[in-house]
Amino acid sequence: MSFPFSSNHCQVQSFFSDSTQTRQLGNLFSSRSFCHQKPAMASSSAGNPPPISTISSLPKRFEFSPDSPPKISLSTDQYKHCSEALHFFKEKLRTPERIAQEFACLQANRITPSQMARICKVALDGVNVNKNRYLDVVPFDQNRVVLNPCKDYRPSARGYINASFITTSSSDNISQFIATQGPLPHTYEDFWEMIIQHHCPVIVMLTRLVDNYKTVKCGNYFQAEDGPRDFGNISIVTKWIKNSDTSLLLRNLKVGYKEEFSCKLCAPSDENKGSGCTGTAEEHPMNVLHIQYPEWPDHGVPNDTIAVREIFKRVYHVPPSLGPIVVHCSAGIGRTGTYCTIHNTVQRILFGDMSALDIAKTVAIFRSQRIGMVQTMDQYIFCYVAIVDELEDLISEMNS
């Protein structure tokens, strides 16, 4: 599926120039309000992922393969749902002015600087300000990810990390997300602590470390090709690396506390009696799949949807019960919000939730959980195009 993207992307400039917090916030938000009411804020409490019945159980080990992901076989009902959705979205793409109006309404309902100051108090506290890559992209207090314990022991830090729980459904079948910024050097340990504490099996990285203008977009928190790499009391080890045909860079990482790497026992036995090791899943390094897509430009869209859809195909087969999928770009809203929208929409359609056809509502819900999710018109249109391409793929594979 192709669609003519404009050459001038609708860029939000707030990340780059202004030096003070007030000017940054003022440049990003509009106080205009029309079209729809502002979406209600997410109801999940700070530090707690959305309620999923299986999320609190011990995480099961999941082995990742560098091979191509298995095809998604559709049931009769899934084929019907995909066909209906494909027809709907194709019709929508024939009237791009309707899509433009949807995005205009979303933009008109952005929160104001004064609202943000009220609902992002922890992020903007003096002890946490330097943990934010951009002062105008911070998590809301009530659905932020909380680290407990946290290396920053100061009470006012309150386990802060610039990361937000993102969801549209409490269904066990639908992936939940953590949307976060590209880690800063002094937040690497916090990032990996989040991965361990919330049992995150997959990290989707949608940015380069440095862009074509030599601007640092993300810190190098993940490369560990030359042996173990330590972040405080946390170690990561690379098990394998693969470059996919679609320009994705795949890494299978072992992540855990240092003492877990020193334990060679995998299960309770006579050998480990008295050692303190019980062999439970929480006491050994996690398997984490790190997927990097470096060719997605900041504020822009890829030239095609193939790589984005390969990410979806790989992540689709990871049981949502393992834990939330971590998605980040640089700020953790534009490319991040776009991928989350594509993944969430296709997945919900496959499970028969046809309310997923309302992409504007999905983005509005995501924006009620993290500011500015899906930043530009081009990214919003790209959601439609990628979803159509994936539905066509699923249906054509079924027909063949």
TrEMBL record:
Broad EC category: hydrolase
**Enzyme Commission (EC) number:** 3.1.3.48
Signal peptide per UniProt: none
Record's subcellular location: Cytoplasm
GO molecular function of the protein, one example?
protein tyrosine phosphatase activity
- Which residues lie in coiled coils? none
Keywords, A to Z, come to: Cytoplasm, Hydrolase, Phosphoprotein, Protein phosphatase
Protein name stated in the entry = protein-tyrosine-phosphatase
Q: Which organism is it from?
A: Salix dunnii
Its taxonomic path starts at: Eukaryota, Viridiplantae, Streptophyta, Embryophyta, Tracheophyta
